[in-house]
Amino acid sequence: MTPIITSLLDTDLYKFTMWQAMLHRNPQTTAEYRFACRNATAFPLAELEAEVRAEIDHLCDLRFTKDELDYVGSLRYIKSDFIDYLRLFQYQRDFITVKGQTDGSLAIEAHGPQVHVMGFEIPVLCIVNELYFRRLQQPGTLEEGRRRLQAKIDQMRALKGGPTLAHPFEVSDFGLRRRFSGTWQREVVSTLAREVPQWFKGTSSVLLARDLDISPIGTMAHEYMQSYQSQGVRLRDFQKAALEDWVQEYRGDLGIALTDTVGMDAFLEDFDLYFAKLFDGLRHDSGDPFEWGEKALRHYRKLRINTHSKRLVFSDGLDLDKALALWRHFAPHIQLGFGIGTNLTNDVGLQPLNIVMKLTRANGQPVAKISDTPGKTLCEDETYLAYLRQVFHIPAAA
């Protein structure tokens, strides 16, 4: 059977953009990433251990091809020395372990230099997802997926007869990490790009963006911001240090900042006039999206920034109904983008997996995300988490 990952481009764009920034700014950082499943499964994931191992063995044999490097290098914000690095890059099998646990869970951990191990996250999640759903797929599963996809297309086409708002509805595919399969994601994205190009604007998948000639979408994830908790700056200043390095690296490109590493309120305290002018907008990934968006609007207005010149990107567990509701609420005031993941690429009638592979330590010390959604807070060290809350004046979760 063909391996699940056959190209190193089969990953999210923000892996490349963070990778370049980390290589240039903090290449010495060591890191630990851990896999976790947040919901109940139809069978113990430990049963997949041997298959996951074999797929990772194959992943570690892959190299970037010349055509792939030519594509990445054609993106205007990618620098030539980073392409030289990618030309030499190969995943190291010694940096990642896979082991089934007695409780039926699956332990997957990556340890090593961050610029070598950060990339494991996306292919590992793709591998676990696809192996899992191969066991659950029924003869009519994809037909149900196509029926649901057509309903989304019809819903978008219905916008033609609706009211005209100040800013258009624009949606992108953010579903690589939790896709039903690589083949199904390709079908979903190619269908949307063909049928509703007025509203479908791109994909986080670098491979599909290249193959289908659509825009690759993405800037940064939590791991980029979290890593600065270990970089020697004062902890209270880690967000400002991360944002400043991003500005210096990309100088106007990739200007969407992620706000919920320690919560929106603490983020806005650091997102002063300087950063608010330099960044094009903000991305939502936890907490109530309407409340978050209103906070963003108030912040821009307080700084006397024209909100119509900025963009809010929503990407937290969206489906099309929620995205449209947010668009109708905020489009009179600000530019918008919507990244839909699981509900695009794994909406086939089966219960999706809620799996992650997150940064847990950097430079030998714990790092944390204090999400605006309590269940998404990540940290294995309660003492450090309490300290981080104290530094940013964040009350403990109820």
TrEMBL record:
Keywords, comma-separated and alphabetical: Glycosyltransferase, Ligase, Phosphoprotein, Pyridine nucleotide biosynthesis, Transferase
Protein's recorded name: Nicotinate phosphoribosyltransferase
Single GO BP term: NAD+ biosynthetic process via the salvage pathway
Family named by the database record: Belongs to the NAPRTase family.
Role noted for this protein: Catalyzes the synthesis of beta-nicotinate D-ribonucleotide from nicotinate and 5-phospho-D-ribose 1-phosphate at the expense of ATP.
Cellular component GO terms, alphabetical: cytosol
InterPro entries cross-referenced by the UniProt entry: N/Namide_PRibTrfase, NAPRTase_N, Nic_PRibTrfase, Nic_PRibTrfase-Fam, Nicotinate_pribotase-like_C
Enzyme superclass (EC): ligase
Superkingdom assignment: Bacteria
Catalytic activity: 5-phospho-alpha-D-ribose 1-diphosphate + nicotinate + ATP + H2O = nicotinate beta-D-ribonucleotide + ADP + phosphate + diphosphate
Pathway: Cofactor biosynthesis; NAD(+) biosynthesis; nicotinate D-ribonucleotide from nicotinate: step 1/1
Domain Nicotinate/nicotinamide phosphoribosyltransferase: 169-395
Gene3D superfamilies to which the protein is assigned, alphabetical: nicotinate phosphoribosyltransferase
One Pfam family per UniProt: NAPRTase_N
Record GO terms (molecular function): glycosyltransferase activity; nicotinate phosphoribosyltransferase activity
Originating organism: Comamonas terrigena
Segments forming domain Nicotinate phosphoribosyltransferase N-terminal: 9-129
Enzyme Commission identifier(s): 6.3.4.21
Gene encoding the protein: pncB
Database matches in SUPFAM superfamilies: Nicotinate/Quinolinate PRTase C-terminal domain-like, Nicotinate/Quinolinate PRTase N-terminal domain-like
Post-translational modification comment from the UniProt entry: Transiently phosphorylated on a His residue during the reaction cycle. Phosphorylation strongly increases the affinity for substrates and increases the rate of nicotinate D-ribonucleotide production. Dephosphorylation regenerates the low-affinity form of the enzyme, leading to product release.
UniProt cross-references to NCBIfam families, sorted A to Z: NAPRTase, PRK05321.1
Modified residues (Phosphohistidine): 222
